[in-house]
Every structure is written in structure tokens, then in C-alpha cells.
């Protein structure tokens, strides 16, 4: 019984890790795609979509993309809140892995 519980917990952590990797890649790519579209004066990705991805776990990727592509860096909300959201995400991960595992 304990073995089975440990296996389920391990599987949950693996799935969470995979999810976070994927959502952060998406956050990073959204910034790059939106920057490219801005340069070409094409239809853009809605800021609400970028925020949605950031809020559901992709803040680190979106922040990295913002800095790498130098995109949205003049927007105070992105420049300040995305890194703060990244810190919140990191804090939640530490809490999850430290206290719940």
C-alpha cells in the first residue's frame, strides 16, 4: 500500500514537471512569436493570452522570453509583474516539493 502511494506521488511529480516545462516553453515562444509579428506589423497575440499562460505556470518562460527577445520591456505591468509572478511560482514549487512530498 505504501509502495503504491509512493509510486502515485512520484508519477504526480513527474507529470507536474513535464507540465511546467511545456507551459514555460509555450510562454517563451509566445513572446518570440509576438515580437516577430510586431516587427512585421501583423496580427498580434493578445496580452491576455500571454498573462494566462504566465498565471497557469509559465511565468518563468514568459519572463525569459521577454528579456531574450526584448519584448514588452517598456510595459510596466510586464516588466514588474512577470518577474514577481515567477518568484511566486518558484515559492509555490518549493512549498509543494518541500512540504507535500
Tell me what you see in this structure:
This protein has 101 residues and is mostly helical. Helices cover 84% and strands 0% of the residues. It contains 3 helices and no strands. The chain has helices spanning 2-39, 47-69, 76-99. Helix 1 (2-39) packs across helix 2 and helix 2 (47-69) packs across helix 3 (76-99). The longest helix is centred in the N-terminal third of the chain and has 38 residues, at 2-39. The model has no long low-confidence stretch (mean pLDDT 91).
SS-based structural class? mainly alpha
Outline the biggest β-sheet: none
Mean pLDDT: 91
Number of strands: 0
pLDDT < 50 runs, ≥5 residues: none
Q: What is the CA-based Rg, rounded?
A: 16 Å
Order of helices and strands: HHH
The helical percent reads over 70%
General shape: elongated
Q: Which range does the strand content fall in?
A: under 5%
How many individual helices?
A: 3
Taking the alpha carbons of the first and last residues, their distance comes to 17 Å
Amino acid at each position: 500500500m505504501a509502495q503504491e502511494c509512493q509510486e502515485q506521488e512520484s508519477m504526480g511529480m513527474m507529470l507536474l514537471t513535464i507540465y511546467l516545462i511545456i507551459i514555460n516553453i509555450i510562454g517563451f515562444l509566445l513572446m518570440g512569436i509576438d515580437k516577430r509579428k510586431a516587427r512585421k506589423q501583423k496580427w498580434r497575440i493578445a496580452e491576455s493570452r500571454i498573462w494566462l499562460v504566465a498565471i497557469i505556470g509559465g511565468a518563468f518562460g514568459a519572463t525569459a522570453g521577454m528579456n531574450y527577445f526584448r519584448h514588452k520591456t517598456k510595459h510596466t505591468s510586464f516588466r514588474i509583474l512577470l518577474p514577481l509572478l515567477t518568484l511566486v511560482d518558484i515559492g509555490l514549487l518549493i512549498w509543494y516539493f518541500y512540504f507535500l512530498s
